[in-house]
Amino acid sequence: MNVDNTKMMDIKNIVLRFGGVVAIQNISFDIFKGEIRAIIGPNGAGKSSMLNVINGFYHPQEGEVWFRGKKRGSMKPYQIAHQGIARTFQNIALFKGMSALDNIMTGRFTHMKKSIFSQIIWAGGASKEEYENREVVEKVIDFLEIQHIRKTPVGALPYGLQKRVELGRALAAQPELLLLDEPMAGMNVEEKEDMSRYILDVNNEFGTTVALIEHDMGVVMDISDRVVVMDYGKKIGDGTPDEVRNNQAVIDAYLGVSEH
Amino acid sequence: MLYREVGEFKTSYAQDSQTFPIRFDRYRYYFVIIVGLLFIPFVINDYWANAVFLPFLIYAIAALGLNILTGYCGQVSLGTGGFMAVGAYASYKLMTAFPDLNIFFVIILSGFVTALVGTLFGLPSLRIKGFYLAVATLAAQFFLIWLFNKVGWFYNYSATGMITSPSRSVGSFFITGSESTPAAKYLFCFLFVFLLAWVARNLTRGKIGRSWMAIRDMDIAAEIIGVNPLIAKLSAFAISSFYVGVAGALFFSVYLGAVEPTEAFSIQKSFIVLFMVIIGGLGSIFGSFAGAAFMVLMPVALKNLLVLQFGWSVDIAAHFEFIIIGGLIIFFLIVEPHGLAQLWNLLKQKLRIWPFPY
Fold first, then answer.
1. Sign, CA torsion A11/A15/A17/A23
2. Do residues B336 and B282 touch, judged by C-beta distance below 8 A?
3. Percent of chain B beyond pLDDT 70?
4. Beta-carbon contacts of residue B162 (< 8 Å; ≥ 6 apart)
5. What are phi and psi of A130, to 5 degrees?
6. In Å, how far is B261's CA from the nearest CA of chain A?
7. CATH number for the domain formed by residue range(s) A93-174
8. How confident is the model at residue B346 (pLDDT cuts 50, 70, 90)?
9. Looking at the partner chain, which of B13, B203, B217 has a beta carbon nearest the beta carbon of A98?
């Protein structure tokens, strides 16, 4: 994906505290339109908290979030979803009682506008709207190669497929910014390769901007355009994979500092 | 052999998502509707109407309503009896205040009144979940019954504190009061069941139904894909209460004719409807009917068996009824926690491959 240097999201001086614990200390970074932006760091660095801030679950005590050139006020997560930000979770958060198809259809929620009265009589556009959205969902299902499990309840699926369905649900929303919280956690090499390919394809074909948290350094360095490194709630590095790899502070954080 | 999906090719999304995707299922459904409309009204008598069909149809509506709330949206409610009472008293007040209003619209309007009350009592669900919400709705149950006993305006200051349904008709057919016929009552309830089941199906297969199920299964994930929990939960409460209100209004005006709130809409009603939903199957339209049929028909069947066949005295039979029904409930929940609807699905799976098991 060719990244033009317009800022899709600009995060300025975020401070997030839980009582006395400072989870995020004055962090700023930006996400360009069309790039794959990785956030890495050791456990407890505040990466997931950062996603939760972007996503509206946490409201930072200080700092600003700018999205598409506008400063964002205090918003609820569902309002942020309507702005075009979708995400997946570290621990799969699928709707266990529903089929894979219904899960992904739920991802179309923000695109379905027909009134409740139309839905009651299943006419006046509600059924038409349903089938139009089904078409979009079927494209996502094709893309992720999960046709065979369409009608299976997701609770019965193996872990790797559940991760894929969850990605499908986020993709179905056709977001401008896609947040992925450890999309490859607990996967074997093949599954990681598949998932990397899907992420690159999403970025290439649909032009979706991706921000992801990942622990597998090989994957991060291969697929991302730029990387933010966090440690103990502070930003210690920011730049292309090569720059980050050679950053002394990052090396220290990951490998430890020898004491002379 | 009959039950086959082989050879049925779906060529549109509309076909793929129809209610009865398998031809045999569809014909069975038409058959039930035709028997219900063209056969039963001609043979129905007072006993069958009062012992079997009216309670089954009315409880089916209440079970559909509670299933929307508890089965689809995951909000446990123990206030069903209270909300049925709201429907009953709303219909009574409407019937006495507007004698010219058609009974059909009286019932519908009672549903809307109950929906309002239900939404009000649904407000705590935004803060509390699970058992705590059940306790909050329990408060609704006791408060509403207390209100209808205490405030004379609700029962038009009648000396007995009871409400009695005046005679009302659709065209020349009396639905309520002493001149009503079993067939007219039956068809009137049948119409409501048919309409409301159809609406429930439409709601649960579309956007709003998925938003309820999303809230039920994982409320955090529901929120990040754009579901407003406030709207999802309150709409579930409103629509569920509408159904329960219609059931209450029919229960009072068409079925019983005269009620006293402590007796007719006690906490026991809430539990009976909750049992129907659990035994029938949470989150299933068919389950609501199966549960209602089970809870209504079982006592009747047992009474016939014990008293008429075995010649037991009525009081002993009545006690054994409780024991047997309780036992059956436990049995069903152990064998299949997802209720009769799931058993039915398993049976259909078996039928699909019968007679060759592999």
1. positive
2. no
3. 97
4. B155, B258, B259, B260
5. -60, -45
6. 32
7. 3.40.50.300
8. confident
9. B217
* CA–CA distance, B66 with B240 (Å, rounded to integer): 6
Say if strands A209-213 and A7-18 run parallel, antiparallel, or are unpaired.
unpaired
The DSSP secondary-structure symbol of B153 reads: G
Which residues of chain B have a CB within 8 Å of the CB of A131?
Answer: 12-14, 17
Q: List chain A domain ranges.
A: 1-84+175-260, 93-174
Q: Is A87 within 8 Å of chain B by CB?
A: yes
Beta strands in chain B (DSSP E): 163-164, 168-170, 173-176, 258-259
Domain A1-84+175-260: CATH architecture, name and number where available: 3-Layer(aba) Sandwich (3.40)
Check if A249 contacts B (Cβ < 8 Å). no
Question: Residue B280: which residues within 8 A CB-CB, separation 6 or more?
Answer: B63, B67, B286, B287, B288, B289, B290, B291, B292, B294, B339, B340, B341
DSSP string for A133-162: HHHHHHHHHHHHT-GGGTTSBGGGS-HHHH
Same topology, domains A1-84+175-260 and A93-174? Answer is yes
**Is residue A163 a contact partner of residue A101, using CB atoms and an 8 Å limit?**
no
pLDDT tens, position by position, A75-113: 899 999 999 999 999 888 999 989 999 999 999 999 998
User: Which residues, including other chains, have CB under 8 Å from residue B276's CB and lie 6 or more apart?
Assistant: B59, B62, B63, B66, B288, B291, B292, B294, B295
Q: What is the pLDDT of residues B210-258, one digit of tens each?
A: 999 999 999 999 999 999 999 999 999 999 999 999 999 999 999 999 9
Handedness of CA B65, B69, B70, B75 (dihedral sign): negative
* Chain B residues touching chain A at CB-CB below 8 Å: 12-14, 17, 199, 202-203, 205-208, 210-211, 213-214, 216-218, 220-229, 235, 283
Bridge partner list, A113: none
Instruction: Identify the closest residue of chain A to B15 by CA–CA distance.
Output: A131
